[in-house]
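Might you be able to check the backbone structure tokens below? Thank you kindly.
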Amino acid sequence: MSTPKHSSKLSAFSVFKTKRTSSLVDVNSGTPKKLPRKSISANVTPENSKQNSVSSLINKFRAASEKRKDKQSAKDIKKALKSLSKNGSGSFITSKVSSLKKSREDGVQLKSIKLKGSNVINQSPVKTGPDKKKSPPKPLPRKGSIRPKPDVLKIVKDNDDSRGLRRRSTTLSPKLPPRPSKRRKLSNDSVSGGSDRDSVIMTPPHGEEIRMPLPVHPSVQSNGTVPKMFDSAFEAKKLFECMIHPINVSKFFSELWEKKPLLVKRHIPSYNDGWFSSGELDRILREEQVDFGRNIDVVTFIDDKRETHNPPGRAYAPLVWDFYQNGCSIRLLNPQTYSKNVWKFLSSLQEYFGCMAGANVYLTPPNSQGFAPHWDDIEAFILQLEGKKRWRLYSPRSDNETLPRFSSGNFTDKDIGEPTLDVILEAGDLLYFPRGTIHQGNTVNGEHSLHITVSSMQRNTWGDFLLKLLPQTIENAIEEDIEFRYSLPTDYLNYMGVAHSDLTDQRRTKFLRRLESLMTKLLSHAPVDETADQMGKQFCQDTLPPVLTDEEKIRTVHGHGERWCPQTNSVINAVELEPDTCVKLIRKSLIRLVMEGFQVFIYHNLENTRVWHEVEPRCFEIKPNLAPAVEYLLHSYPNYKQIDSFPLETIDEKMELASIFYDKGLLMTEDPLEIYDDSESEDAGALEIE
């Protein structure tokens, strides 16, 4: 080997890279000295004692990290490197690291990571080149499994994000079958199995504080005061944003909703506080009428067998806790009936989803499981409130079981295969999965678990819309189009039917073409808007009544107006609407304007109870000529409008509609109505007559 040209100021030894080895070359003699395999040397410059100490520290750090025998020594070296960097040796350290990164031996490469602005060496070798072992061929999916859909989802958090969230990216390939199940540690006591193709996992670092964003209306004043205007649609959107934080809502609906599960690991135990607690369950059992079977279940799942242990009668607290102590899981079926917070949250979310939002609460004792693997007919949001629970999710077994309309029976482990996600939820975490996702959960590590499942979209699909649309569409077509009233061929039973399905007959072909033509014409007779109103009627019957604040009550009939005074044995606090009174609906989705024949009805959920379908649908009839004012109120929300601005012909009609809606509790005034005394008015009138 020829001696390369070099400056006289170079040190006695320099690093050179050959095709296969890195060698130390004596500059004076030109004799190469081979380094031990997989070793890397840095330049040594005796003239600079500080630089010499830096090189020594780098070598010691590499050796300590590789052997992993003296962790404290490695930490001390890191501190020394940082100190030297602050004293002006940063550029030298960078050059040393660059030379180390460029050195390779037989396909061995050192990865570098950033640590507080300085590059250090991570000595976990990554094999590259010809020595890299080929991964074994991936097994084909089991029979009946679903291949991943051809889409790509990548969620990457910026490095400078203040919350430091780590987002795992997932990529779906249209050509490859699902990857085999793997077990991978997500965080402390959290295990993930299966492929990231089927789920999205977000994991903030431990100890990172994430504050729930507060719903703030755009019209909030600069001094921080909340305006009188209250927009229920805006509040519902902000609540949902907080629930799935930090996922972007539009990304959630475009890439995850009804497609794949979502796991958010927050490491903030108090994040879901305010929904429910074990203490509140105890209060409910002691103070409320809770019945076994109707309001609460006690269940077990042991040896692949689920059993319900509900005795008849009321669920008294000591009896329920005795079941719990004996390993039974507790399911509260309608927590919104007893918990004001759950009622408040669900009544807001139902506005966002446009359908009923429900909830169940599950309390599971340590090291137990209450329910067999199954799928549900709802979009499920699991909010972990207390303790820990291990969840295993499984993909639908076929396309027919994807997004089902009804819940499944119980499965065994043999029926469902390997999980696509295996994780432990801790307090503050969120797990979402679409309806049809097979799932099971059990407590681990000697801890209990309390979670609430928020549900939506139960039988609220395009198919359900068509079930209401098509019967009326056919009725309209028969009434409006003579083509639908012509008689069937007299001999059609001779060539139509299952027994004749394989026949090649021109009469059969003609029959099918005629049927196709009639079905095409059906669309022109479809009462789409009327069907939407029927779905709106169902919404008003299914949903919870709104929760009114004290500030809202004093602006409505619910907390303001006439009342009895026991001191005077008379009615006081009389109020009256005036033409210049500003009003609005108390909630955006409170009412539904429905035309049935020549009649106009107003359906609403204000008088619903907190028990599902406990009362009949609530509605009242108004004069058809008042309907434009109702539309005006709907379209004006959330803005207040003066009564005299209603699009009606006379002031009497305007006051009539406003009085009906206010007396029904549907309207809210911008300011509390002024109270006047009837007796004083009558006395004043009498004096004027005299």
Notes: The chain has a mean pLDDT of 77. The longest helix spans residues 71-102. The longest strand covers residues 379-394. The radius of gyration is 36 Å.
